[in-house]
Amino acid sequence: MAAKGVLPRVGVFKLASCDGCQLTLLDCEDELLLLAEKIEFVHFPEGVSFKASGAAEREGPFDLAIIEGSVSTPEQLQTVREIRRQSRALITIGACATSGGIQALRNFVDDDGVNHEALQKLVYAQPEYIDTLATSTPVSEHVAVDFELRGCPIDKGQLLELISAFIRGRSPAIKNESVCFECKRRGTVCVVVADNTPCLGPVTHAGCGAICPAYRRGCYGCFGPRESAATESLAAQMKNIGQSEPEILRAFRLFTAGAPAFEEESRRHE
Amino acid sequence: MVDPKHPDSKQSDAIGQSFKPGTRLSMPRTGLATLFTLLSAEGFRLVGPTLRNGAIVFDDIATPADLPVGWTDKQSPGGYRLEKRADQRAFGFVVGPHSWKQYLFPPKETLYQATFDPVAQLWRQSGNAAVGSGNGAGGTAFIGVRACDLAAIRIQDRVFIDGKYVDPAYDNRRKASFIVAVNCLEAGDLCFCDSMETGPEVTTGYDICLTEFDDTFLVQAGSGRGEAMVAQLPVQPASQAEQKDLASGLARCRRQMGRQLDTEDLPGLLFANLDHAQWDRVAQRCLACGNCTMVCPTCFCYSADEVADLGEDPAQRERRWDSCFSQQHSQIHGATFQPTIKDRYRQWLTHKLASWTSQFGTSGCVGCGRCIAWCPVGIDLTEEVAAIKADAETPVPLPAYQPVPTAQAAEPFATLFATIEATVTEVVAETPDVVTLSLVMPRGYQYRPGQFNMLSLPGIGEVPISVSGDRNGIVEHTVHRVGNVSAALSALRPGATLGVRGPYGSAWPLAQTPGRPVTIVAGGIGLAPLRSVMRSLAEQDRTTVARNIDSQWVRLVYGAREPEALLFNRELALWRQNAALRVAVTVDHSTADWTGNVGTVTTLLRRKEMPVDGLYLVCGPEVMMLAVVRLLQTAQIPPENIYLSMERNMKCAAGHCGRCQYGPYFICKDGPVFRYDQVAFLFGRRGF
């Protein structure tokens, strides 16, 4: 906590990402003004006009750094190290920052014998302008992270809870349980049991409020693997209800393809 | 209307007849609509089975047309399908994914709110009793409650309202509920209520019981309210044929049970087979998704968290259904006691079918089969039990159920979560990360050494802290800064206020100390709950009692990581000067200025006299207590002379939230202090 009367200095940073998670902060609408009274955004390019966020203000220190996006370029690698050095608490938000994001699909290309450079040539007309790392990785792979907020995108309520908890100095009431917990609490009929729909809910980190099953669709795993993700048993169940190996592979290799538990499982179905 | 003077008096009108209470009456099918109208007119919200998203769920209903008329459910492990019936029965199915607990014990509920008093500059908590019943003034009528689900409601009653502490919100809702039960004349493929002796016949705990036939319902009143309602229904005495159909229907249902569970010696059997290979096999399949616990009508575990309080909203504590399949269920500042899926499944099954019997005097399973149907991978607990039984060790005895005496006027039951406000008078820094808070407690506050209080700061959280001493109405708590709440407590200054509730739990056996040598073994913060014992023994003038100084000594063996981490240094020095006390201190890692013992408490204790008739009180990290107990066992100390203080994830402190379970015990109410022989069968075993 910052000294009394002084608002905590917060920096919001973006690495390789789509901006959706930062946008969640602006989507807070009703709570945004309240939030602005409780913290001082000293760096928030997405939310503050250019003049107000001059280069000088990018200098820390920060009481709280909020990072969106994965580490995808050598420059971003330097950036996260600098942010960590400047920040008392560092939280990462979204599937990119916590697992490498959809862009971590490139982590798998070497399996096919295509190296990173060849891939760049395949995609870009003038790859010499591109300076990327061979892999897209979560921030926690490079610096210590105090809390990882999951989701693609993150949940607004959870983000507010995390920031309020930081302001008050308490532990955030954010559960690391499976999506099934939330699904059952809201009284949704299980789509696996009632409809034979493939669903990643049992192995996926909660936080979205179990939206998809409420619309009779299976969970896509946007929040990434939960702790103790029993992916092997779930994959066997998916096979039992008629999913093919490529379908199972794709189910686990989506927004959080780079998260170890899902990466391991998808490799089993290559 | 029932004439109280002449309950048997016959009247000619179809409506308004009175019959002997409990008589089975016949009602045309159209009478169901009348019943619904009457209940609504009385102000009841009607909740019952209805079709939604491919299943029969519970929801608000208005007329019998909202019921799943002409539908049934076909269930298998991990499978549930709706099917058309050949008839137009409204209750021609068994149980679906929902249970009545979602109305009596909602999945998410605010436990209390705290508001900031700007004049006094402090946070005040509103009592949990002030939290509304959530069911509206008229309460809720549950339509179509099966015998197994009625048994489940009675089981949750034992948890939430039949013990020493009453959950007021549950109590309100329970009292405001009207139960329309239904006898089952057909069993499902996953039903085994007959094995659990909970059904299929509704026998008790209902207001009105219905039995459905093609053309009529049998109606039976089970309470005064039910009788008054039945008297307004279009009923007539049941025919011989209807009575016979009920009996034969129930008998057929019993024969149809799709599953069975052999309950003989089951609690002792499961605890005798904690290393059975079947636990590993089931852990290969189990997803730890928690669905079995969420659909279970008796599972009651919940989490309690401080929630969003950005800005002006009052700080709230919220509870949510939790489950032993979540990691956080068994987690305390960094340690998780059930890290693996195997640990969690074993916790669930041993609790449901075994330790529940010690805790509440009943099995936790009612045989409804929901956990089998709604497990995505179709794990069947009846098969798991059968597999364990097929190749089992002999059952072990489990602790007997200790019923709580029912309400006594002299001692009103305590309200859960009600806190008092206490003011900090002094803060003593014991070590760099441990402080002792002195609190002014209300007159009459009493505790026994070994017990703990729940200390809370609104908006931050609540933690269990053992009482470390008291002087003239000032009660001390020694707090180790390990998480956010303990950090905030450590930062309090004299004059600050905090919430306190307690004392909770069991105490050290002080009455057993006179006339025998007492050895107190403490590690780290573990000295805090033993300090009161030391003080009490130090103050007891054991020298003046006719005593043999060689056989009635008190010894403290105390260890800490390093000299800097030793607690109560001033008091340790005083105790050293006391002729009645023998004090030995050791540190794991010495520093340059340390001239005392170096090594573990076990190393130090091994060098001391360990008389077999002595009393041993042990508190510290579990791994240390384990080493001490092993040493004491080697020294032939009988288990009943050893006492331990245990720690698990205590949230409610009343045995309601289920998170501090340790086999058949709740650490919060059966512990934290245990006589070693009580816990010997589990102590040191991973996963509990």
Write up what this structure looks like:
The complex is a heterodimer of chains A (270) and B (688). Chain A is an alpha/beta fold and 270 residues long. Chain A has 2 domains: 9-106 and 134-168, NADH:ubiquinone oxidoreductase-like, 20kDa subunit (Rossmann fold), CATH 3.40.50; 179-268, no CATH class. Helices cover 37% and strands 10% of the residues of chain A. In chain A, strands 2-1-3-4-5 form a 5-stranded parallel β-sheet, sandwiched between helices. With 688 residues, chain B is α/β, with parallel strands linked by helices. In chain B, helix 8 (266-272) packs antiparallel against helix 11 (341-360) and helix 9 (277-285) crosses helix 11 (341-360). Chain B contains 19 helices and 33 strands. Helices cover 25% and strands 26% of the residues of chain B.
CATH class of the largest domain in chain A: Alpha Beta
Q: How is the biggest beta sheet of chain A arranged?
A: 5 strands, parallel
- Total number of domains of chain B: 4
Strand order of the largest sheet of chain B: 3-2-8-10-11-12-1-13
- Rounded to an integer in angstroms, the radius of gyration calculated over CA atoms of chain B is 29 Å
Low-confidence stretches of chain B: 1-14, 127-136, 407-412
Helix content, binned percent of chain A: 25-40%
Number of domains of chain A: 2
Strands side by side in the biggest sheet of chain A: 2-1-3-4-5
Number of helices of chain A: 12
